[in-house]
Amino acid sequence: FYSGSAAVPEVEGADATGSEEVVIPKKKTWGKVAVLQALASTVHRDATAAPYAFQDDPYLIPTSSMESHSFLLAKKSGENAAKFVINSYPKYFQKDIAEPHIPCFMPEYFEPQIEGISEAALQERIKLRKVKASVDMFDQLLQAGTTVSLETANRLLDLLCYCGNQEPSTNYNFQQREQAEELEEATEGNNEKPKKKAGHQLGVTWRAKNNAERIFALMPEKNAHSYCTMIRGMVKHRAPTQALNLYTELLNNRLRADVHTFNSLIEATALVVNEKFEEKWNNILDLLKQMVAQNVKPNLQTFNTILKCLRRFHAFGKLPALQTLREMKAIGIESPSKGSSLIIYDIMNELMGKKFSPKDPDDDMFFQSAMRVCSSLRDLELAYQVHDLLNTGDNRKFIGPDHRRNFYYSKFFGLLCLMEQIDVTLKWYKDLIPSVFFPHSQTLIDLLQALDVANRLELIPQIWKDSKEYGHTFRRDLKEEILMLMARDRHPPEVLLSLLDVYYPVYPLILTARASQLQVAFADCAADIKSTYESQDARQTAPSWLASSLNYIAVLFLRAGRTQEAWKMLGLFRKHNKIPRNELLNEFMGSAKASGSPAQAIEIVKLAGAFSLPICESLTQRLMADFTLSQEQKEALGDLTALTSDSSSDSDSDVGEGK
Fold first, then answer.
1. For the purposes of burial, counting CB atoms within 10 Å of the CB of 23, is it exposed (0-12), middle (13-18) or buried (19 or more)?
2. Shortest CA distance to 72 belongs to which of 552, 342, 487, 438?
3. How distant, in Å, are the alpha carbons of 237, 270, 273, 316 from that of 313?
4. Residue 307: how many other CB atoms lie within 10 Å
5. Do 525 and 464 meet the contact criterion of CB atoms below 8 Å apart?
6. Euclidean distance between CA atoms 169 and 189, whole angstroms
7. CA 256 – CA 620 distance, rounded (Å)
8. How far is residue 69 CA from its own chain's centroid?
9. pLDDT score, position 9
């Protein structure tokens, strides 16, 4: 568009000779899933959707904690079945369509390919974790006069000590983790049942003269790795005394242990029986001094092991635990994931805003333990800090398995119900339930109590509807709480009219209609709860009626004007031999007076007389004063009064004779 003779204006400050040097940035290597991670960071959790683990066929999406547990078990069972088929027939699953490669989607080869007797065949069987085949191959090599190298012998010891001289199962890691938790609970508690249970669960124990000890004795030469492997295997499979003796032999041979072996020795010291806590602590201090003498630097696992041991020392372990934390800070190691309620504030100040990476097998217990401390301290602000830390980066991965996630959110929501404003609590209720966890009955009871404190009882029918959806239809304590809150206070239209008629003459009719609708909603909810006692699910046992439940439902029916259903409730008192309350009988008497039915009033007196209630006399006087009775009704009432007086006199005489 410009002619050739057009002059191009010069840019002010441009100098060809003095141009700035262009610095080319260094090439950044991105991971294969970097794009997926960037996309995932833009997506947030949908509070209206089911948890991601349950997103399957809509018919299969669980609606209760029990169903979610069954769903996860079934899903895990399906995964194990798929892995079994893939590993059993690997030749049919050779096509790799995943990019990048996902190893767990491809078959694993568990059958040895090298035949014959050789050290290479032994190494292959060790790699495949064939315990029995590896031991047999080692024995065959010795019988053939072949010398096994020290490295291969150490690898065989690693396999035997890790698996406890047994073939590892497919879910070996999961079993070991559960066994460790059971043993820890049994050690801390004083109950005998957990100890028996933990002893039953812990099936792999160290036996004397097993294959590991035999091969260790047959080795012509041993290095520090050989001794360390044996020590760690003995501690893992509950042979602490043998481990400490073998450590003494290691020192006599002028060898040094590594930091992982010292961690196991510290654990072994705490497991030794027939020693006082002070003696065990002194032995742990001796091991730490030996680490210093051997120039072995402790790691995070070392201090975590010490703190776990101090937990078993009860009150004696408090002061050494604080000393351990100070020592950790002195050498620049971050605080562990567990702490007492007195130092939780310092721990949170250290951790706020940080993103975690796994460093300890028990890291997934931090958020559960921290929220338990927040709940015991009744500190809502601290709970918010813990929850914010959970949502920082990928820290939510440390919340643990399903049961720990449910425990965390149950404690968090229970603290919200206790300390937070009701509007904020209801917002959390919609955000967390059921998209994050399914509430237990106690969680809903906590919410009901929060509604009671905030005078938001109109939401009770909706809570009952939600509780049915979450599988709590037959929870007696939950139904009792709902009925009690609905029947405790009366909501008559007259109260609203007398308060607001003077200042707001236009609105009383609207407020009166609202109050009556609330009573109707309560009565509908009570009728629904009543149906749970009458029509039982095939999987549930029929619950027995409580006297309080009968009283609450009858009162709610009367207040809503459903008199026929209320009078039918009286038959249930006789049928189930439950005693009605005096307040209920007075309300029935008032209902009979409002309808002008002396026959119903006489039925009330008969019911009170059948149970020999003290209120029978006052009900009779009220009946004579408020109703006009026929001659037959007077005679029937006279016979009832005489019968009641005779029964009361007989009871008085029995009491006198007893005295």
1. exposed
2. 438
3. 21, 9, 13, 6
4. 20
5. yes
6. 30
7. 95
8. 11
9. 53
**Is the four-CA dihedral 572, 573, 574, 578 of positive or negative sign?**
positive
Q: State the Cα–Cα distance between residues 574 and 607, nearest whole angstrom.
A: 8
What is the reported pLDDT for 246?
93
Contact call for residues 604 and 589 (beta carbons, < 8 A) = yes
Distance CA 442, CA 478 (A): 8
For residue 263, the one-letter residue type is: N
CB atoms within 10 A of CB 374: 24
Cβ proximity of 309 and 270 under 8 Å: yes
Q: Look up residue 467 and give its two tokens.
A: 């509780």
| Distance, CA of 72 to CA of 569 (rounded, Å) | 43
Residues making up the chain, counted from first to last: 659
From the list 214, 108, 225, 221, the residue with the least C-alpha distance to 170 is: 108
Contact indicator for 65, 73 with CB cutoff of 8 Å: no
pTM over 0.85: no
End-to-end CA distance of the chain: 125
Mean per-residue pLDDT pooled into runs of 10, the chain (659 residues)? 49 57 84 86 81 79 84 89 88 84 81 86 90 92 90 93 82 45 42 40 73 92 93 92 92 92 91 84 89 89 86 79 77 56 79 85 87 91 94 88 91 94 95 90 94 93 92 90 91 49 46 65 92 69 80 91 87 87 86 80 82 81 77 70 54 43
Choose among 130, 83, 135: nearest CA to 111. Answer: 130
Domain boundaries of the chain, sorted by first residue: 580-659
DSSP 237: T
If we measure between CA atoms, which residue out of 197, 199, 272 comes closest to residue 234?
272
Q: What is the pLDDT of residue 652?
A: 45
- The DSSP symbol for 268 reads H
How many Å apart are CA 279 and CA 288, to the nearest integer? 14
User: DSSP character for 297?
Assistant: P
- Runs of H (alpha helix) within 208-298: 211-218, 224-236, 240-252, 259-271, 277-293
Please report the DSSP string for 358-401 in residue order.
--STTGGGHHHHHHHHHHHHT-HHHHHHHHHHHTSTTGGGGG-S
Token pair of 50 as six digits: 């089911």
Orientation of helix 493-500 relative to helix 508-534, angle to 10°: 160
pLDDT at 25: 84
